[in-house]
Fold this protein.
Amino acid sequence: MSYAGHVWMHLRKDLRLEWRSKDSINGMLFFSLLVVVVFAMAFDPTAYPTIARQISGGLMCVAVLFAAMTALNQSWARETLNGVLDAHRLAAAPPSALFVGKALANFLFVSAVEVVLAPVFAVFYNLHPLGETRLLLVILPLGTWALVVNGTFFAALSLRTRNRETLLPLILLPISIPVLLAMIQATTAVLTGEFEPTAWLKLLLAYDVVFTVASVLLFDTILNAD
Amino acid sequence: MVNDTRNAKSSSVWGLLWLGLTLAVLAVGFYHAMTAPTEATMGNLYRVFFYHFPHAILSFVFPYLNLGASLLYLWWRGRSPSRALAADAFAVASAEVTVLYASIGLATGMLWARPAWGIWWTWDARLTTFLLLWLLYVSYLLLRSFSAAGQTAVVSAVLAVFAAIDVPICYMSIRWWRTQHPAPVFGGGADSGIDPSMYPAVWWNLIGWTMWGAFVLGLRYAIERRRQRQSAADSLAYLGDAQEAR
């Protein structure tokens, strides 16, 4: 079977599992909705439309990041049941196909959450974007892929550590600061229309390429860590 | 075993000599730092620069040692386990020294910023990058302490590679961030060049703190190597007990 075939098998398996349980998407959706509500307590978005435009890009990225982190651990925890992970290690399929398949599945789940979350933000925060809204269709997928590819990798890395739920954010956040910054700045640029998001888009693209390559190359080492 | 003891003895003699030399250089550095001419605008306050500068510079050097050791570890892991262990010991030592130097760099910088600028902290490009460097290597140490015993070295070597890739990207992105928005008032400092009469203080301190860093790193490496030997001996002892019990 070709490499793409292996990736497709892994992706299909993850999608089917999620379709049957709907654990991660439901959890992430409700969690991010709660974040929207809680941040509305911190300041009154409808009374200050300018401030709302300036900060809701950041709020949404943070909401997505936190929501994704709750799901990332779960996505690997499924594989540890009944020693499935050891079966993966024995399988003849390339290990990175497992990683790419899972990263793609997580990417689809988080994107689905964003598709629901973005209109919710616009409605609840009374947002009238002043820039090119279409650019969000590029910015959000690029940023989400960067977060998810690193997140999936580090979730696998912290799989066999003590208290892995605590550890994942502690190592994922410092590494992801550049991509968070780029994603937040680009979204804010679109919402406020005050500056051009192009430089940040380039950074997102470069980050995606660099860290996807690094993760794919090093995943074999992580899977066979002990 | 006899050879080991002799090696340990000779390396501790060399270590003590190195420490003595380091302290002497640091003493000269201290003398120059305290007798350098008073700075025009900041007065004596600027003398903290002679300590802030070497620590800040060196905390961008030790991460590369950490990366080198981690890559060597990953390379040697399947080929030469004993060398791989040494590389891992060096990686942990250099990461700890990075965090130590970056913490001192941050602390002296903040102590200096408070009287010079009136604030402890500003989200300026250089400060933010430096803070992120600190965060990255603290997270590396946290991962080391959290990971399962058998895989600490592999997992942390992989994170070290990621962190080292991340440092230049961080640097770039934060520069963009801070040039796009109006930067806060950022005056003073030695960025605009220093008077030649201050060179001796800068150089002696830079050399002295480099030597000190090398000493701490070597000491930490030796301790880690000893811990590795001890745990290897413990495992062998268990194996021996188990065979006797049979």
About this structure: Chain A has eight helices and no strands. Chain A touches chain B at residues 150, 157-158, 160-163, 166-167, 170-171, 173-175, 177-178, 181-182, 185, 195, 199-200, 203, 206-207, 210-211, 214, 218, 221-222, 225-226 (CB under 8 Å). Chain A has one domain: 3-223. Residues 91 and 194 of chain A are 52 Å apart (CA to CA).
